[in-house]
Design brief:
With 164 residues, the chain is an alpha+beta fold. The protein has one domain: Class II aldolase/adducin N-terminal domain (L-fuculose-1-phosphate Aldolase, 3-Layer(aba) Sandwich), CATH 3.40.225.10. Helices cover 50% and strands 12% of the residues. Helix 4 crosses helix 6. The protein binds zinc ion (ZN).
Amino acid sequence: MIHSAIHTARPDVNCAAHAHSLYGRTFCTLGRTLDITTQDSCAFYNDHVLYGNFRGVVLEEEEGIAIAQTLGAKKAALLQNHGLLTTGGTVEETVFWFLSLEKCCHSQLLADAAAAGRGETTKKIGNKEAMDTWKVIGSRKSGHFSGRPLFDLIEVETKGDYKN
Ligand SMILES: [Zn+2]
């Protein structure tokens, strides 16, 4: 239901990835979007949303439509109390954004905990720097080419069997 609604709402999206990965789903209990605190997180600057209306296992058509509406034109969504969702023009791009978002969630959980232990908060990247970095690493082309090596590795490790 999620994927169908996204493909209907976003003809530019050829692939959507959704899973309940450990750090993603943990971060999604916080009910907030990512802080822009690392270079990698700049790929999601103004380019991800929080969908905060968890209503149980996604079977309802309306839930998928609501997620697609919240996603809008952005590349990724944090589904509160649920998991991560990324989109892209290619499989490689979409998978790269998913893995990157999972690592951003992991990184922020560690950084927030470390900062809190010192009674401090993390240092945020400025809006201009975040936007300039997004333009370089947040584009569809960048995501696609960042994902290519992962598929090259899978090709070697499986001798191409993963395609069967
Ligand atoms: Zn799910």
